[in-house]
Amino acid sequence: MYDTLSLVSLLKTKKISHQELLAECMKSIVAQNEQLNALVHYDQTAYVAQLQQTDWQNLPFAGLPIPLKILGHVKKGWSASASSILFKDEKASMTSHFVHRLETLGFIPFGQTNAPEFGFKNVTDPQLYGVSKNPWHTAYSPGGSSGGAAAAVASGMFSIATASDGGGSIRIPASFSGLIGLKPSRGVMPVGPGDYRSWQGASVSFAMTRSMRDTETLFYLLRDKENQSPYQAPWTEWQHHQAAPHKKRKIGFFIDSPIGNRVSEDAKRVMKRTIDLLVQQGHEVEEVSYPIDGKALMQAYYRMNGADTAAMFESIEQQMGRPLTMKDMELMTWGIYQSGKRMRASQYVASLHVWDQAAVSMEAFFQDYDVLLSPSATTTAPKLATDLQSDAIREQLHAIQTLPFSQTEEVVYNMFEKSLHLTPYTQLANLTGQPAISLPMGVAENGLPLGVQLQSAKGREDLLFQLGYELENEGAFQFLHPTKQLEVTRS
User: Is 175 a catalytic residue?
Assistant: First the structure.
């Protein structure tokens, strides 16, 4: 299949029409979506209507269809369910700044992709919409929380899809589904209106992509400085539009899990292949120790999650004029909510201090190294049938309302433990605000893809793009469907 810029070129040169592109898109959706459950809504009539009102010929993305993640990427009049039972009938009263920015660049929204309830999982199986499946093998998950977006792109339904990342929710499905997944620096992507500090700035919007030039071009066209945003990207981000090609970089790498669990031989093999390729490109690559206390960092992450969830639901209770119950949400969501309700303000503030110290430590690390390399995940995607909790944990979640905060924290940590063992690498960049990218660098013995993660200092996406291009040009990326590219000038 073609990457996004190739499709744009075909449209602008009139080698294909929007009607022909739409027909191919619908053909792919009809053939695959019932099985994959990537899209939860789509409307070709709405797409055609907006296309007719758009001066697409003069816009960078030429009226190309793009599906929106059902969580956070809202368009006025469309579902704003957040994949939640509570908001299953909710419609958006306004269009988010992120979606509006996409539209001004010439994308036209086409449907909405599946996600777990409120984005709390690294798999996509909301009770509201059902399970999304991995196009590589439908017995496996495409990951989460941007799992529907990943399935839509990996399967070839679309060349690109919006996604968001609050703890790895772009990079995890990119690794599990064989795609490129960039989590930009905090403060560089459009935010609002209404929600300007999603998960205290940990959550950042971007997209699932299939080529480095799509990734880079979209990044530089989307990035924006919003004075009303509490988070602002450092000026270095605006000064480095493009890294010097093939400049030698100093790269630190680690393979061991930050929380001490086992890393698969497949992940180690893909890392070795990546390291060998980077050395062949002339880069200095050396092993380093993980610079943060991984378990303490995750505890601080869960505290933020709980406090923000409690604040959200308490606001909803005031609006609805009634207390929320376990029946209003999935059991995992209920557990996070109840733990957050029992947290003291001082404990919440202390958790944010852990974030800040981690950011200080990582910026110090990037004084000595240009990039940090690690696996994106310890192994490939889990099977759909994998139980990532247990009956004992579910019993504790049912009783969590009666427990003191210290015990609720233990329940929440145990609730996430099996999931975290799969993906312990990605959360660091969210808490420090630094950019990170997952690249599709290998296929495991079970036939499923695996990614590696590159992380850099705040505002240095250009370093990630440089190394990504070098690996892509080596033919190292592994996609389910080969990506075709027309000769389109790199941004």
Answer: no
Active site includes 351?
Answer: no
Q: What is the pLDDT of residue 489?
A: 47
Q: Is 169 a catalytic residue?
A: yes
pTM for the complete prediction?
0.97
Q: Single out the catalytic residue among 84, 169, 185, 198.
A: 169
Query: Which among 69, 75, 121, 341 is annotated as catalytic?
Result: 69
Of 84, 145, 205, 374, the active-site residue reads: 145
HEC secondary structure over the chain: CECHHHHHHHHHCCCCCHHHHHHHHHHHHHHHHHHHCCEEECCHHHHHHHHHCCCHHHCCCCCEEEEEECCCCCCCCCECCCCCCCCCCCECCCCCHHHHHHHHCCEEEEEEECCCHHHCCCCCCCCCCCCCCECCECCECCCCCCHHHHHHHHCCCCCCEEEEECCCCCHHHHHHHCCEEEECCCCCCCCCCCCCCHHHHCCEEEEEECCHHHHHHHHHHHCCCCCCCCCCCCCHHHHCCCCCCCCCCEEEECCCCCCCCCCCHHHHHHHHHHHHHHHHCCCEEEECCCCCCHHHHHHHHHHHHHHHHHHHHHHHHHHHCCCCCHHHCCHHHHHHHHHHHCCCHHHHHHHHHHHHHHHHHHHHHHHHCCEEEEECCCCCCCECCCCCCCHHHHHHHHCHHHCCHHHHHHHHHHHHHHHHHHCCCCHHHHHHCCCEEEEEEEECCCCCEEEEEEEECCCCHHHHHHHHHHHHHCCCCCCCCCCECCCCCCC
Model confidence at 146: pLDDT above 70: yes
pLDDT mean over 194-202: 87
Q: What is the pLDDT of residues 174-197, one digit of tens each?
A: 999 999 999 999 999 999 998 888
